[in-house]
Structure prediction request, 455 residues.
Amino acid sequence: MTGLFARQALTAKGWGQNVRIVTDAGRITSIETGSKPQDDDVIGGIVIPGLANAHSHAFQRALAGHTEQRGPESKDNFWSWRSRMYELAGRIDAQSLLAVARQVYTEMVATGYTSVAEFHYLHNEPGDSDPSPAMFEAIATAARDAGIRLTYVPILYERAGLNEAGPTVDQKRFALTVDKFLEHYKNAAEQSGGSFQTGIGAHSLRAVTAESLKKIAAVAKRDGVPMHIHIAEQQREVEQCLDVMGARPVEWLLENFDVDESWCLVHATHVDEVELSAIAKCRAVVCLCPSTEANLGDGLFPLQRFLEEDGQIAIGSDSHVSINPFEELRWLEYGQRLVSQRRNVAAIRRAQTGRSLFESAVTGGAAACGHADGQLSIGANADLMVLDDDSPMLAGHTTRSLLDALVFSGFTLPIDRIMVNGEWQVTNGRHRNKEVAEEAYLTVAKELRLDEVAL
Ligand SMILES: [Zn+2]
Prediction:
């Protein structure tokens, strides 16, 4: 049992002063406002819920910074980035995946992500066509070492495109038959418990057949787990979908599947107004990954209208060009400001933009990871962050604007402690496993020789 006394805390009931939170066996067992600290309590400044990183490809952390040079044809876009990413994927084995994933998960916890949905399609070891238990174990071990709550989302990848029967040579690394995939999912799901659980998903409409997608969606419904899919990230995908299926991607999905709040639609960048309203209405979560979407030149999701229609959003760091949830929230708003020439566009749920975005990401992220609502309440997961209330970033801010300062001040995060599943992973601003993670990662990053990938 752990007692935490916070001078200020944001719980499911709103901001409170002098809040004593007790946790036991990974859950919050008591919250008392207007309380006093007890002997052995940890004393903290400001306590807020941890955030979910609802979309991660852990292995891509090793590619960050290696694709920022103009290619020979000066036509760099998502597709040219993807071919470089495939070169990296071809070099990653279970051992290097463990080191890269442990590093990125450790970085996530240190910046306030307390859970992650790992959208994992790198199932096979190099040269193999069956899913390797070692690749899955690398992800699960990395999450345990970093102390992050993991929703493992195995992903089916079958084919190169809507009109293609199979994968390209590059994609063979992660391609599976639907039967092998479902067997892999079953094995992973049997290990659920504690801070590990599963979701399930398909890479995209272009990468799986409608028949396979139906089977996966049926398993998600049967098991009550979140169902994830990339959708409408690129204009080219929309055009191909119109050509081959006679409908836009989101339009086709919503017409052919019973999409509900258990679905996580990743990106959904290129949607028209009808599709946007339909997503909001069916309560599916749209996972936005602003730093990656900007890095890849994907386009801009129509956030304001979606929030006005009470749509649910989550955030993800996706390719990990940035690992900072507050930066994701900042750029979510800034993209809208740049395109609309207005300010405080996302301040729809509340007048404060930072608080609105933060609270939306807490609840939407929890839904995408298959958790309860993510807020601090009795019975909830004991996943939280303790902020230093002596930090210059927060000086002069009351509870009215504290979260706005966190999102929009853009400097070193004033994180004192992070708790996941009732255990302290970060104390005095330092992750307990930082050195171990870094040492292994430094070796692997050099061995991967990724500067060759960009040439
Ligand atoms: Zn992705």
Notes: The CA atoms of residues 93 and 125 lie 6 Å apart. The chain has a mean pLDDT of 95. Residues 55, 57, 119, 230, 266, 318 surround zinc ion (CB under 6 Å).
